[in-house]
Structures are given as C-alpha cells and as structure tokens.
Amino acid sequence: MLMPEFHLLTNTDWRILNVIRQKGEVDRSYIIKETGLTLATVSSSLNRLLGNTNNFKTILITKKEMPKREPKAGPAPILYSVIPKVGYFLGISVGLSNTRLALIDFDFQVVDLKSNFGEEFCFKTGTNMSAVVNDVRKLLLNIREQRPEMIQKLLGIGFACEGAVDCVNKVARYSPAMPFLKELNIKEILGPSEMNFIENNNLSLAMDNVPNCIATAELQVGNLSEYYSKDDTLAKAKDEYDDKNYRARNEKHIVCLNIGTEISVSLILDGKIYRGMSNYSGCIEHFFVDVDYNELKMIPGFSVKDTDPYHQLGFLIANSIGKIDKENALHKLTKDEIANLYEHSGSFIGKSLSYIVNLLNPELIVLTGHNANAFYDYFYPQIRESLGERTWRFGLENLRFERTSLSSNSAAIGAAINAYFELVASFNN
To answer: Which one of 64, 163, 204, 327 is most buried, by most CB atoms within 10 A?
Structure first.
C-alpha cells in the first residue's frame, strides 16, 4: 500500500533519489556534483530520505560508512543506496504472441517470479479485446495471490501495447497487427474494482507502445544504461568503492530493433526516446515505404495474400529459430529454406534500416526482443551487407551493432519503469 509520507517528498528529494538509484551507491560529493545542489540542501534531503525527520518517516535509503583509504585522507566516505523492498512496480506487455508480466523493485531489479506452477505470468495473447482484457486481469489476480507481500507495497502499474499508443492520455489508439486493440484505455483494461484499488492507494499508471518500452528498459537497466558491468565476476572482485567496473555510455543516437513475432523499432535521439509529435512513434510498420512484393515472394513461406508482411515475416523468423509454438508456425521449413529465409529477410530488414541510418546517422543499433541472440548470429551479416549497399559510407563506418542483455520480458520491464517515472512526475507537477 502506498504510504501517505510519499506525498511529502519534494522535487529535490526525487532528484537526489534518482541519482542514488541510478548509480547504486554514491557519496554526498557525487550527489552534489550531479545535481548542482548545495551541501546544506543535499544534507537536508538525505536526512529526510533516511527517515530522520518528523514529517517524513518512510525510510527510502540506507547508508554505510566505508573504511578510510589513507591515514590522512580525512573522514571515511559514507555511501548511500536505495532500499529495494520499499516498493514495487508492475509492468504488463500485450504483445503479438504473448501477454507478459514483470515486477521490479524500487532499485529497478527484476523480481524472479518463477515457481512450481509454470507460466502463471505469461499468457498467449487473445484474438479479441475481451480476451486480452481478461488475460491482463488474470495476471493481476495471479500476482496478487502469489506475491501478496509485494502487492501490498505496489506503487505503480505500467502497460506496453502494440501499435500507436498515446502515452500522455494513456490510450492504445490502434494497432496494425492487432486491429481489435482500438481506443483502449487503462480504465477499460483494469475494470472498476481494480481502478478503485489503484485510486484508493494512489498508484501511478503509465502506458506506451512495446518498442518504446523496450527502449526504456535498455536505457535504464540494459545495454544502454549509464552504468553497467559487462563482467559481474570481475566487478565483484574489484574494490566496491574505488572501482565498480562501471563504464559510461556516450552514445546519444541509437536504434533499438526489436525482432520477435513482430518487427519494430524505437528511436533514441540525443539520449532520449523519440515519441513524435503525437506520442505515436515506435512502430516500424509505419516507416517502411518501399514494399516490394516480388522481393518478399523470394522469402520461403511468405504469402503475397497476407496484408501485413512485417507481421508474417516476424512469425517466419521466430519459427525458423524455434522461438514460437508449432501451432503458430506459418510454414514448416527445410534447412535450405531456413538458410534462404535468413538471407532474404536479413537483406530486406537491412534495406528498411537503411532509411533510418541515412536519415538519422545513429551510432548504435541494439538488437532486442526474445530472438535477439539468434537474430544476431544468423542475420547480422546480411543486414550489414544490405546496409553497405544503400548507406553512405561515412554513415556506416562507425555504426555498431550490439545484442541485448535483457530477456523476452524487456517490454514489461520497461512498462514497469515507466510507472516509476510517472510516479516521480506526479509529485513534481
């Protein structure tokens, strides 16, 4: 349950809390440097976050004193870190093939929801709006029954939906791949009883499209996060204060290419997710402007009759690397056909990416989605070759590809993170 004391947090408190959460463990001098605040202001806010003031008793952070590094180095540094279990955020992604749930704590760590009962927190997405809404409510019921101690500390719920999503008004306007998801708002998804619970407990709500939620997860906890360790073993062996094996990411212009049973992109420009004039940016279906059906016919299993070639191509790719159920397969492919699928679809996707590369000149393309690793292994050469044929040489020379470090739950994780930022925004207004 959301504690009333949260409402007493100031804008400054949230700024400092975000710095601590982002870095993991920081001392006071780092907070002053990052925020530009005075020593007195930072000290006062830290006391509030530590629960040392009468008007705010919720303890959000903890501190520990480090040993002195040198005899004459002055006072030992004090490191501050957030308390992860102070609150939780739910994320639900309504994808083309699956509807998934993820739970993160206040430190953006993903809670392991596995149990002996199987996939309670993942359903095959329904074929109509009623089925999708029922699946979401089942997921919420399951998490409430199996993790009641965490739901009591729930602070927000975020949604990721396919297609054009108005993240300001929290409405899924329309999805080309899922046309029945039309003008669907959060209140309709959750229903009256759930909304009463949310309003009574002041929970934050957020909604964005799937690719943008994936990009959010990448920026905050994945490959693109400002601080992350590529080698956890090495990081733990280092001195925990002097060298955390963190490295800063300097890329500002990035494309996140999501390859699942759908193909979509999200754009990160100048370090921020680009949502466009109407907050609808993110679906690659709206970006392709050169559909050549004669070229698509060369892809094994492709049917010209299909009205959504990118939807079908995603299913074909997923099926070829064994990432969807057999009943969802559009075509049973031989080894030679699979090799042709990799060649032609990789070339086709590379051709489509060339528009983005030529227009935006990004520094990095991150391959995301639950097929990212296999996609990188099998498709990267064709994509690179196709880009080379259609992209300015100086635009391709320094362009790098990386595969995601996140799981197939990345959209749901990003949706949960959005709920956190919605909470912060609500107190800053």
So the answer is: 163
Residue type, 262: E
- Are the CB atoms for 160 and 213 separated by under 8 Å? yes
Instruction: Report percent pLDDT > 70 for the chain.
Output: 79
Distance (Å, whole) CA 15 – CA 226: 16
In a domain, 260, yes or no: yes
pLDDT in tens, 254-275: 888 887 777 788 888 888 888 8
- 337: phi then psi, degrees, rounded to nearest 5: -65, -35
**Domain limits for position 286:** 253-405
Where are any strands of DSSP class E within 187-253?
204-209
78 and 91 in a single domain? The answer is no
Question: What mean pLDDT, rounded, does the chain reach?
Answer: 79
Q: Identify whether residues 282 and 333 lie together within a single domain.
A: yes
Same domain, yes or no: 135 and 191: yes
Enumerate the β-bridge partners of residue 272.
269
159 by DSSP, 3-state: which? strand
Which residues have a Cβ under 8 Å from the Cβ of 252 and sit 6 or more positions away? 268, 269, 270, 271, 363
What is this structure's pTM? Answer: 0.84
